[in-house]
Specification:
Blueprint (H helix, E strand, L loop, with lengths): L10 E7 L8 H20 L6 E7 L4 H6 L7 E5 L14 E3 L3 H5 L1 H12 L11 H26 L3 H15 L2 H7 L5 E2 L5 E2 L10 H24 L6 H29 L12
Helix pairs in contact: 1-4, 6-8, 8-9
Organism: Cyberlindnera fabianii
Pfam family, one: OST3_OST6
Keywords: Membrane, Transferase, Transmembrane, Transmembrane helix
Length: 277
C-alpha cells in the first residue's frame, strides 16, 4: 500500500479480492472481469489521461495490508482521492463502492460510480469474444444454408415469392420503417379539418404517404415488366405497338404524379413539367 503514501495527483481504485481456490470467493470471481473491463474502457475512453489508476489487491499476496486496513470482507472497491484533497495515510478516507447484484450484472453501474466521482467519461463497449462469435457464425451459416437449399429454392420458383419480394421492397423504400421508428400518425388534418395525404417538408411524412409511394413504385414495376417482358412476346405488331405507347405514357404519367408529390414536400423543386399533366 506504499502507493497511497506521498503526494499524488490522481485517484487510485483498488479492488480487494480473494481469488485463490482455498478461499472460494464466488462473488470475487464474478466481479473481477467487470472491474477489468471498466479499467480497460477507461483507458480507451481517456487515452493519455492519468486521472485514475485501477489496481487489484488479492488477499493471498497482501495479508499485511488487509490487516492494516482491518479488511474482513471481500470483494470491496475503495476509491482513494488525490493526496491534495486530503491529508493521506494508509487508513485515510476513501470512496467505497458497494458490490451488489447490480454490480455483477450491469458493468455500467461501476462505470457510473467512477465517472461521477472522478468526473471523467467512460464509454463501455462490448468486448469481442471469439468463441461467442464462432458459435453465432456457425449457427447462422448452417441456418442460412438450410434455408437456401430447402426452403428458398422451392419458393423462388413460384410467382408468390417474387410478388412478395417486390411488395416488401416497395414498402420499405416507401419509408415504412421511418413511420414505425418515429411513431408518426397514419393520417392528419389541416386547419380546415381536411385530410392531409402528404406532409410538407422533406424530413417528415405521414404513414399514409408510405403506402401511396409504395403503390406507385409497385405500378412502376408492373409497367416496366409489361414493357420489357410481356409486350416483346406479342406477335401482333399493332397490339404490341399500341401496348408500348400506352405503357410508356402510363410510366410518364406516373412519374409526373410522383414529381407532383415531391413538389408538395419541396416547393423549391426546379422542374415544372408537372404543370402540364
Amino acid at each position: 500500500m506504499h502507493l497511497l503514501n506521498g503526494p499524488r495527483e490522481y485517484y487510485v481504485s483498488i479492488l480487494f479480492t480473494a481469488l485463490s481456490p482455498e478461499i472460494n470467493c464466488d462473488v470475487c470471481g464474478k466481479f473481477e472481469p467487470v472491474y477489468g473491463r471498466i479499467a480497460r474502457s477507461y483507458q480507451k475512453s481517456n487515452p493519455g489521461k492519468n486521472a485514475v489508476f485501477f489496481l487489484e489487491a488479492d488477499f493471498s499476496q497482501n495479508q499485511k495490508a488487509y490487516n492494516a486496513l482491518q479488511m474482513t470482507q471481500v470483494p470491496r472497491v475503495w476509491l482513494f482521492p488525490p493526496s491534495e484533497l486530503v491529508n493521506y495515510n494508509v487508513s485515510s478516507p476513501h470512496f467505497p463502492y458497494k458490490i451488489g447484484d447490480k454490480a455483477l450484472s450491469d458493468p455500467l453501474d461501476f462505470a457510473n460510480f467512477i465517472s461521477q466521482t472522478v468526473s471523467v467519461n467512460i464509454v463501455v463497449q462490448d468486448e469481442f469474444d471469439p468463441y461467442v462469435f464462432l458459435q453465432y457464425f456457425a449457427g447462422t451459416f448452417v441456418f442460412v444454408l438450410i434455408l437456401k437449399k430447402k426452403v428458398l429454392a422451392r419458393l423462388a420458383r413460384g410467382a408468390i415469392f417474387r410478388i412478395l419480394s417486390v411488395v416488401s421492397i416497395c414498402i420499405l423504400t416507401g419509408g415504412y420503417m421511418f413511420t414505425v421508428i418515429r411513431g408518426v400518425p397514419l393520417i392528419a388534418k389541416n386547419d380546415k379539418g381536411e385530410i392531409m395525404h402528404f406532409s410538407g417538408g422533406a424530413h417528415w411524412q405521414f404513414g399514409l404517404e408510405t403506402f401511396i409511394i409504395a403503390g406507385m413504385y409497385l405500378l412502376f414495376v408492373v409497367l416496366m415488366n409489361i414493357l420489357c417482358i410481356r409486350l416483346p412476346s406479342i406477335d401482333d405488331p399493332r397490339v404490341r405497338n399500341f401496348g408500348v405507347i400506352f405503357a410508356s405514357f402510363a410510366v410518364f404519367w406516373l412519374f409526373n404524379q410522383l414529381t407532383k408529390i415531391y413538389l408538395v414536400k419541396d416547393p423549391g423543386y426546379p422542374y415544372g413539367l408537372t404543370n402540364y399533366i
